[in-house]
Amino acid sequence: MASILSACTAAAFRLASKSCTGRRRTIQQAVTKHPYFLQTCVAPLHHRLAFSTHASIDNDDDEQIYDDGLDQLTDLSLATQNRIRSMKARHDEVLRLLHEGGDPTSLGKEMSTLREMSAYCEKVAEINAERLSLQELLEETEASGDEDSKDMIDEIKDELEQLKVQLQPLSQRMHKSLIPVLNPDDVEDLTSSDVVIDIRAGTGGDEACLFAAEIMAGYEAIAKSGGDGGKSWDIEILSCSTTDLGGVKEASLAVSSRGGGGGGGYGYESFDVASDDAPEDEDMAQKLLQQLGPYGFFQYESGVHRVQRVPVNDNKLQTSAVAVGVLPAIPEGALGNALPPTELKIDVMRASGAGGQHVNTTESAVRITHIPTGIMAYMQEERSQHKNKSKAMRLVAARVHSLRKQQALQERSNARSSLMGGGDRSERVRTYNFPQDRITDHRCKVSVQGVQSWLSDGSMVGKFAPHLYKMERDDRTAALEEELDDSGKNGKKRRKK
Questions:
Q1: Domain topology for 330-414
Q2: Does the pLDDT at position 132 exceed 70?
Q3: Residue 301 near residue 324, CB atoms below 8 Å
Q4: Which among 19, 135, 275, 355 would be 20 to 30 A from 293, CA to CA?
C-alpha cells in the first residue's frame, strides 16, 4: 500500500509541475498543511490513470464509478454527452481488438474517426480530475476554520475558474468532432467527385436564355480557377443549345479536377466551423473551399435561379428563371458497373440543324435511355458517333447516380424535411436583383451587393457555399439531437416495462 501511495504522490507532483506556478504552489502548500490531500487529490488521479488504461477500480467488493467530467460541459445536451461516451467506449473497444490481433484495415479506419474524440475525452477527464481534487481541497480548507487559509482559499477558487475556462473550447471541439462540417455519408463525393452541371432556361423567353448564358459563363470562369482552390479544373461542354441572340436554351458541362478532386480530408478537423459567424471568416471559408472537389464546390447551385432586370429590348422590369442541376460525375472506368448494358437502350440517328456536310448524311447523333428510370440523354455535338455516345453515357450515368443518391437520402432521413431543401430544380434558391444591385440566397438568407461582379466571374458560388455547408451541418445537428432524445425516451419506456 505504501508503494502505491508513493507512486501516486509522485504522479501528483508531476501533474503539479506541468501546471501553472500558482497551481503548483497551491498543491505544495496543501501537502504540507493538510494530511487529507492524498485522499482529495491522489484518489481522482488514480481514477484517471485507471480510466486511461481501460481498467476499473475495485475497492473491496464495490466498483467505483469514474467521473468523466462530461457533465461539466453544460452547453452539450445530455443526449450528446451520452453519444460522446459511447464513442469513447467504442474507441477503447476497437483499441483492445487491435491489440488482440483484429483486422487492422477495417478497425484502423474506424479508429481514425474515433481517435480525436477519445483524445478530447481524456483531456476533459484530466481537467475534471484536477477540478475534483481542488474542490475537495477547498472544502477541507474551509472546514478547518484556519484564518491563515484565506489566501489559499482564494488561490484554489482562482484555479477552479481557470479550469472552467479550459473546458469551454474543448466543448466546442468535441461538438465539431461529433458532427463534422462535411457529411460523412457524402464526403467522398464532396472532396473527390467531378461534376456535371445541367443548365436550362425557364420562364422568361429570350431574357431567360441570356441569363442562362451568363450563369454558364460564370461557372466556367470560377471552374478555371479551381473553385477558389487555386488549381485550374478542366471544363468540357457536353451539349449546348443556343439562340440567335447568344442565349442558352439548354446546356450540360462537365467540370473535372486533374486527378483527384479537392484537397482531400474528411471534414473532421481540417476546416471546421468555430462559431455561428465562422463563414464570415475568410480564412476559414477558404480552407473549406480548398478541400472541396468540383461536385462539392458546385452542389448547392442546384435549383431555380431567378433574375429581375429590364431586358435590353424592353423598358419594363421582367422576372425570368433558370434551372440548374448539379450531378456527381461517374468515372469512365466505373460506367459499366453503374449502368449495365441490359438497362440501356441506345439509338443512333442523323444529326439535325446547322453543322455542315455531316448533318443529315451520317448517323452521328446518339440517344441513350436508361430503361428502369426513363432518364435519357441526346448528343449530337460531335461529328463522331463514338464521341457522342461517350458524352451521352456520362450524362445519363450522372443523372441516374444523382437520382439514386436522392432516393437513398430520402430513405435515410425518412422523408424528414431539411433546412437545405432537396436541391430540386423546381426549388427557388437565389434571386439576382439588378435594379437593387443585390444577390440573395433564400436558403441561408445572405445577400451581397454587386450583381455583375459576383456573376461575371462566378465568385458567388464560393461566397454562399460556406454558409450553406454550415446550415446543412446545423440540420444534421438538430437531427442527431432528435434521434438521441427519441432513443433516450424509448430506453426509459423499455425500462419501465
A1: Double Stranded RNA Binding Domain (3.30.160)
A2: yes
A3: yes
A4: 275
pLDDT surpassing 50 at residue 405: yes
Higher pLDDT, 46 or 470: 470
Q: Is pLDDT larger for residue 440 or for residue 80?
A: 440
- 10-46 pLDDT, tens digit per residue, is 334 444 444 444 444 444 454 444 444 444 444 444 3
Q: For residue range 206-243, what is the model confidence (pLDDT) as tens digits?
A: 999 999 999 999 999 999 888 766 678 999 898 899 99
Residue with the bigger pLDDT between 388 and 480: it is 388
The 3-class secondary structure across the chain, one letter per residue, is: CHHHHHHHHHHHHHHHHHCCHHHHHHHHHHHHHCCCHHHHHHHHHHHHHHHHCCCCEEECCEEECCCCCHHHCCCCCHHHHHHHHHHHHHHHHHHHHHHCCCCHHHHHHHHHHHHHHHHHHHHHHHHHHHHHHHHHHHHHHHHHCCHHHHHHHHHHHHHHHHHHHHHHHHHHHHHHHHCCCCCCCCHHHHHHCCEEEEEEECCCCHHHHHHHHHHHHHHHHHHHCCCCCCCCCEEEEEEEEECCCCCEEEEEEEEECCCCCCCCCCCCCCCCCCCCCHHHCHHHHHHHHHHCCHHHHHHHHCEEEEEEECCCCCCCCEEEEEEEEEEECCCHHHHHHHCCHHHEEEEEECCCCCCCCCCCCCCCEEEEEECCCCEEEEECCCCCHHHHHHHHHHHHHHHHHHHHHHHHHHHHHCCCCCCCCCCCCCCEEEEEECCCCEEEECCCCEEEECHHHHHHCCHHHHHHHHHHHHHHHHHHHHHHHHHHHHHHHHHHHHHHC
Q: Do 271 and 288 touch, CB atoms closer than 8 A?
A: yes
What CATH number matches the domain at 195-328+427-497, 3.40.50.11420, 3.30.70.1660, 3.40.50.150, 3.30.70.360?
3.30.70.1660
Q: Which residue has the cell 481514477?
A: 47
Do β-strands 428-433 and 303-309 pair in parallel, antiparallel, or remain unpaired?
Answer: parallel
Q: Where are the domains of the chain?
A: 2-178, 195-328+427-497, 330-414
The whole-angstrom separation of Cα 166 and Cα 268 is 21
Average of per-residue pLDDT values in the chain? 75
Lowest mean pLDDT among 257-261, 265-269, 443-447, 488-492: 265-269
Bridge partner residues of 416 (DSSP) = none
